[in-house]
Amino acid sequence: FIPLPLDLKKSAIMSCCSKVICCGCNHANDLRIEEGSLKHKCPFCRKPTPITEEEADKQRLKRIEANDTVAMRREGVKQNKKGVYRRAFEYFKKAAELGDIEAHYQLSLMYYYGHGVEKDKGEETHHLEEAAIGGNPRARHNLGCHECDNGNTEKAVKHWIIAASQGHDDSMKTLMRAFKSGMVSKNELAAALRAHHAAVDATKSPQREAAEEYYRNENRRCR
Predict the structure, then answer these.
(1) Alpha-carbon distance 92 to 106, whole Å?
(2) Which strand (E) or helix (H) includes residue 12?
């Protein structure tokens, strides 16, 4: 089993069943379909993949009716991009209540920016903590930034080290800057670098590298 990359652009969510597939497997499946002149089907549930955005929207809304938290979160992201913040907030809230970790992270951003809800530092921190405990490195990184802003540099560094060990690039860059300012020791930085490299390397594969090159050359992204 190869972990999914942290970069969300390097994976896709199937609207029919909300399963996540990395771009490497997605590209390999597309090649198999093209070589065999087969119909495009989801590699998980085997349902025909939607051709239009409207078809994908219908599938996602059907999943939402079944209390699919991933579908709820995806709809929240879509509404957020459209600027329909209150509706986005409600989708994230429902998904978080049902245990979706990424939805907690999205809620922290809503409270931070005041999108669809009043700005609330306490609620923002609460949802960051829930997301971080659930393994979200972006939330862990932001908690570190909060602690740093409050003068708690030791706690900040601990958060960044944990996030960096999960492969989070921004946390690793922050630790390097912290090292230059004397907040991080040489040994701490070296250990974090080793953990970061190991986490990133664990997500690599020949299939994924081939897919990245293909999408880059075609000026496309993993759908």
Answers:
(1) 7
(2) strand 11-13
Q: What is the mean pLDDT of each run of 10 residues along the chain (223 residues)?
A: 88 93 91 87 90 93 97 97 98 98 98 98 98 98 97 97 98 98 97 98 94 83 69
The string over 136-153, giving b where at least 16 C-beta atoms fall within 10 Å of a residue's C-beta and e elsewhere, is: bbbbbbbbbbbbbeeeeb
The pTM score is: 0.92
User: Which pair of structure tokens corresponds to residue 127?
Assistant: 């949802």
Report d(CA 56, CA 14) in Å as an integer.
9
Count Cβ atoms below 10 Å from residue 198 Cβ, excluding itself: 11
User: Rounded CA gap, 132 and 126, in Å?
Assistant: 10
Alpha-carbon gap, residue 36 to 49, rounded angstroms: 16
Report which residue type is found at 132: A
Give the CA distances from residue 105 to residues 10, 22, 126, 183, in Å, rounded to whole numbers and listed in that order.
Answer: 19, 21, 10, 27
Phi-psi region of 200 (alpha: psi -120 to 50; beta: other; left: phi over 0): alpha
Helix (H) / strand (E) containing 80: helix 69-82
